[in-house]
Amino acid sequence: MARLNVNGQSYDLDVAPDTPLLWVIRENVGLTGTKYGCGIAQCGACTVHVNGEAVRSCSLPVSEAEGKQITTIEGLAQKGVLHKVQKVCIEHDVPQCGYCQCGMIMAVAALLKSKPKPTDADIDENITNICRCGTFQQVREAIHAAASA
Ligand code: FES
Ligand code: FES
Hints:
This protein has 149 residues and is α+β, with helices and mostly antiparallel strands. Helices cover 34% and strands 14% of the residues. The chain contains five helices and five strands; from the N terminus they run ββαβββαααα. The protein has helices at 21-29, 84-91, 101-114, 120-126, 136-147, and strands spanning 2-6, 9-13, 47-50, 53-56, 69-71. The chain has a five-stranded mixed β-sheet, with helices on both faces. α2 (84-91) packs across α5 (136-147). One FE2/S2 (inorganic) cluster is lined by residues 36-39, 41-46, 56, 58.
């Protein structure tokens, strides 16, 4: 059993403690915005926030997320208002196929919380998510736009 708090809601779930958090979010909680890419903490498609920090949920056992605040892409907008990173991604036409974008947005949102005005070097260091469509330059522009929004 695991008791999780996801997007402000509590869930009691019948899962083994070593199940990756990503699986639990998708299969047990039923929120499928968070994506599976590599399963080995490399691509960032599975990024969620755990106590406000970006975490690659494919590589975190659910037992380590118990008692913490988990936020997924579905919980990023507040009261129907999109997060500023979501807004700039739309305004700058960032998504191509979109598969990486939920994880990318969660990673960027966490970066802007810790560094409201990131430099290109900060972006290179912190946003290591992989986008097979090659939206990296558009993501960078969107980050700078969100930082000055
Ligand atoms: S699926 Fe988690 S980092 Fe790729
Ligand atoms: S938009 Fe297609 S993988 Fe990033």
